[in-house]
Amino acid sequence: KTYPEVNFLNYKDRKKILVTGGAGFVGSHLVDKLMLQGHEITVMDNFFTGRKRNVEHWIGHENFELLNHDVVEPLYIEVDEIYHLASPASPPHYMFNPIKTIKTNTIGTINMLGLAKRVKAKILFASTSEVYGDPEKHPQDEGYWGHVNPIGPRACYDEAKRVAETMCYAYQKQENVDVRVARIFNTYGPRMHMNDGRVVSNFILQALQGIPMTVYGSGEQTRSFQYVTDLVDGLVALMASNYTKPTNIGNPDEHRIIEFATIIKNLLGGSSEIVNKPPVEDDPQKRKPDITTAKKHIHWQPKVPLMVGINKTIEYFRSELRRSKHSERNIWKPEYL
Ligand SMILES: NC(=O)c1ccc[n+]([C@@H]2O[C@H](COP(=O)([O-])OP(=O)(O)OC[C@H]3O[C@@H](n4cnc5c(N)ncnc54)[C@H](O)[C@@H]3O)[C@@H](O)[C@H]2O)c1
Q1: How far apart are CA 77 and CA 42, in angstroms?
Q2: Architecture of the structural domain at 16-186+227-251+284-303
Q3: Pfam families from the entry (predicted)?
Q4: Spatial contact of 15 and 35, defined as CB atoms under 8 Å apart
């Protein structure tokens, strides 16, 4: 087996990095970047929504380890940094078993903060723009406290992420743990789950299959989507910075849902009709990050234009739909190659 060529780092510069949820969509791209930089990576995943396929190009590499482990159970390993991403991210996945979603983000985060404390590792928690709920402030900056329904269908995710942030800062204050909190806004790209259920993947899959493209509600609600490699760059920059307060990582380029549907329909030029369905309960009407903090403190801003990202994502889903045999391996090369 051959591997993508990784940078050689000497003993002093090479870090041992744990990526929880590293077999998932975002995690696997982060793993690619950190592996190529030459670090030693341990992926811990229970494969609820993640797949070995996403990291198969690293299996067997001497800098790579894959652990089938649930973050709700403690883990004892030696690491320098922890990227804590383990958690289902799309509404159908996190609503599938709400209690498990709560446990993963609360008990799981306590476990990772405990590990960071014991081994004196830096820890980055993957929080979410969902902490702002259905926002009354637009765009959303980190000072906004949010507008979340604590007993609604999304609460298992939103509130669990909110209390997980609270835990991070309690460990920082009480135990001096070096924490980073990334508030991630909607992200898309290759390796998204086929059943992700969010607009970009839904529209692309529907258009590729020539079936109706479903818009929930009027389609006037807005979203801002960032391409996955921009997010990964932001996470790595945040970890490397000295900035410890919550940081929005997202693309402020805002579009109406109906615009996304039209862009994808026009790009694919298929026979799919755009149809409206009843709105989803507690669906936020507006989403747009204020990224002043990220620009100022971690010198990061997104780079990938929407059309470039959408085209790469279409290419990925097209090849996944064509796949008919198990022996057809994951030909998707790491984005950074
Ligand atoms: N993708 C986005 O748009 C987005 C937006 C905001 C926040 N986030 C956050 O980023 C992180 C990664 O999201 P993603 O889009 O890659 O989702 P994903 O579902 O593709 O990845 C999550 C990974 O975590 C694993 N996982 C879930 N529960 C686990 C458990 N109990 N123990 C161990 N592993 C577990 C899954 O198997 C999967 O590999 C999540 O924490 C999510 O909340 C993502």
Answers
A1: 10
A2: 3-Layer(aba) Sandwich (3.40)
A3: Epimerase
A4: no
- Terminus-to-terminus CA distance in the chain, angstroms? 17
Instruction: Select from 49, 94, 158 the residue to mutate for testing ligand 1; criterion: most ligand atoms less than 8 Å from CB.
Output: 49
Three-state secondary structure call for residue 246: coil
Give catalytic residues, as residue numbers.
157
CA dihedral 72, 78, 79, 85 (to 10 degrees): -10
The rounded distance, in Å, linking the Cα atoms of 254 and 223 is 6
Chain position carrying tokens 């057809």: 328
CA angle 181, 68, 194 (to 5 degrees): 75
pLDDT in tens, 239-290: 999 999 999 999 999 999 999 999 999 998 878 899 999 888 777 788 899 9
> Atom of ligand 1 at shortest distance to CA of 24?
39
Half-sphere exposure of 125 (CA within 13 A, CB side): 33
Token reading at 29 = 């791209």
Residues lining ligand 1, Cβ inside 6 A:
20-21, 23-27, 45-50, 70-72, 85-89, 93, 104, 108, 126, 128, 184, 186-187, 193
Answer whether residue 331 shows pLDDT above 60: no
DSSP-based three-state secondary structure for 67: strand
**Strands 226-227 and 274-277: what pairing?**
unpaired
pLDDT band per the 50, 70, 90 thresholds, residue 336: low
Cβ-count burial of 9 within 10 angstroms (0-12 exposed, 13-18 middle, 19+ buried)? middle
User: By three-state DSSP, how is residue 157 classified?
Assistant: helix
CA of 21 to the centre of ligand 1 (A): 6
Q: Which residue, by CA, sits nearest to atom 44 of ligand 1? A: 89
Query: Could you tell me which of 177, 137, 158 has the C-alpha nearest to residue 91?
Result: 158
